[in-house]
Structure to design on (478 residues):
């Protein structure tokens, strides 16, 4: 099956967590909205038509045959077993999904470091609030999330190579992306935090060495980080 | 099976979405942390031990036999079919979960109206920022979420009684809770918005009339809304 991914064409954003799974699995997919001529119109048509079956609230969403699935963690819940990136047991899948939802919370908090007041306002219009929120994020939330996932790796009874059992899963790919994005957005803070969260650093390296993933990362399909996405580099927020 | 729910004992919070499902189904469960003598110690023991299998990042979490499941939407994904509160098909369950994750996003945004800077600071320490964020929430985000779910009800091909097909699901119970909480936190705004979102108002009434749910709502098990929870009444945020 050829999957259709719909996401804002100019940013990695939440769509990237889905892209990494599709790319690592070598899945057949099309990144619909990135077609310069027809892409945004196709996405808007589905987004604005609430009568569409399983209407999404927001991108990303995936079309798989006749099925529309929104919410990045839900898309990965669906794709995981189909791409060989999820555990086989129901209990393992719930655990993978629990971790992915915690990644989603982390992403939302990270986004709000530069947009603590409103997604509809420019960063410059909420810069003072952003400084306060980012300081809290660096001091409290970032170490808490990093420490949690580092402990999950440490305590995996099957070894610390991956978060779930002995095999790679979509959660590992998402954690790679978190480290990747955090290094871009908070380089100074991450230089301080990584040495005490070595399992995360090692996971990041292990994932970036995967052949299909590393080919993707150096391809034009991988959008660069930029100041429109979720991970943004504002030096004043990384004090 | 007797389920064990773990959540902060003094508030409805995110635990309430799980409680409503358990109560409506008449399930056998214990609200562990509300035991005044042993409850918080039992919850803390599980929260602080990262070596525990499927360690939660935060409450709520559910113990079902030997299984620990965290993240309220994930708990409902697990409980839904077991409590008769989810569709039978896989596609229907993904759709229910997609909606529940959108409720979770709504809850997170609502929480940040009174805590836009940090969950570790008092409201009074972020009151100015809260006013700005709450104004954006009332003007932009609340109508967007309300309108989305109202449209989902309107466009249900099986009728507008419930969000999914012809039968009640855990998503309907969660939407009841959203209306309930929003009326508490933003009474003026909701008086303005409800007349144009009638399907939501009607759903709220339909759910509150369910015998087991209405018995629960008037029981001491239902904690009152208060100024510690997610839904708080600060008149200055409801301008």
């Amino acid at each position: 099956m050829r999957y259709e991914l719909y996401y804002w064409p100019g940013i990695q954003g939440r769509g990237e967590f889905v892209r990494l799974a599709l790319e690592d699995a070598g899945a057949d997919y099309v990144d619909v909205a990135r077609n310069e001529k027809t892409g945004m119109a196709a996405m808007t048509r589905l987004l604005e038509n609430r009568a569409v079956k399983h209407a999404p609230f927001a991108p990303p969403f995936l079309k798989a045959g006749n099925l529309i699935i929104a919410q990045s963690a839900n898309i990965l819940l669906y794709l995981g077993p189909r791409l060989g990136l999820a555990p086989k047991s129901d209990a393992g899948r719930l655990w993978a999904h629990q971790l992915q939802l915690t990644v989603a919370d982390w992403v939302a908090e990270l986004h709000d470091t530069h947009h603590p007041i409103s997604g509809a306002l420019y960063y410059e219009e909420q810069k003072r609030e952003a400084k306060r929120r980012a300081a809290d994020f660096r001091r409290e939330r970032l170490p808490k999330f990093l420490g949690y996932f580092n402990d999950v790796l440490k305590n995996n009874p099957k070894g610390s190579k991956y978060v779930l059992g002995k095999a790679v899963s979509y959660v590992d790919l998402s954690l790679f992306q978190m480290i990747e994005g955090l290094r871009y957005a908070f380089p100074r803070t991450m230089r301080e935090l990584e040495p005490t969260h070595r399992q995360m650093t090692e996971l990041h390296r292990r994932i970036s060495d995967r052949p299909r993933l590393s080919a993707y990362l150096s391809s034009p399909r991988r959008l660069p980080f930029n100041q429109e996405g979720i991970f943004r580099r504002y030096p004043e927020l990384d004090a």
